[in-house]
Amino acid sequence: MNGPEFLPDTSGIHFDDQYMDDYNRKIRSYVYRYAADGRNMHAEISDLIQPLPGQTVLDVGCASGELLTMVADANAGAELIGVDIKPGTMKDPSGNRDPRIKFMAADATRLPFADNSMDYVSALFVLYHVKDKNIPAALEEISRVVKPDGTILIATSGKRNKEKNRMFDAKIAEYRGLPVPPHFNEPFTTQKAKVLLPEYFDIVVDHGVEPQSTEMIITPDRVNDYIHSLATMGPSYEHYPKGYFKSITEKVLPVIYSEIEDKGYFTDRIERTCFVCRPKTS
Description:
Elements: H1 22-29, H2 41-46, E1 56-60, H3 66-74, E2 79-84, E3 101-105, E4 118-124, H4 135-145, E5 146-157, H5 163-176, H6 190-196, E6 201-203, E7 212-218, H7 223-231, H8 244-251, H9 253-263, E8 266-279
Parallel strand pairs: 1-2, 1-4, 2-3, 4-5
Antiparallel strand pairs: 5-8, 6-8, 7-8
């Protein structure tokens, strides 16, 4: 196998920020559709959000509103609010927004809502983007705005999630003589969530979705998608990632090709968990 056929087309990637818009965000997460178990975690979680007409659902870190759109499709009459610190992500790649959702730019540590005002609050795969020192403030804000009888859904990744991807991050940094960007060491893993969340909420242990622990299967026709996903991290190394794709060619593709030649496909780990919580009763 040779490499050039798998080099990514970078014309649509915005180098100044990996989450500048929803195009980049979806490239980053696209590879999860290749999970060996075939699961769609967002769809499973959306089934747990069943607001009555007039109830309010808040999604923190909503991006273009994928979760809230699923909720709107299944539940009429609820008020759906999505907040994200990156306004550019609140439109899909075509520049559209779901008119059933009220989008707002807001920081998870300073939510612009009244106390006890939300029936559901979700934060899916977002708190690991919050600086470690600010995570308590984000959890306090979620606790503040949810109603006493409300539901909180928080999803995050395990420390082994996309572990080969992280290995590639380190290889690229070493190759270029740069430190690994600190946010690659995600502070809010599943393991840390199990310790932190009970300080703010009661975890509902008998309700929710099963943790996802599987492999993503990257066959030759999917390598380009995996490389695109890795390439979104280029801006994290420097303001303009000159030479970043040469690094991928030199340090990443040989590893992927070697594994594909050995067994016909390349794998990376998926570990994700959703915690379903209630406000503390004591």
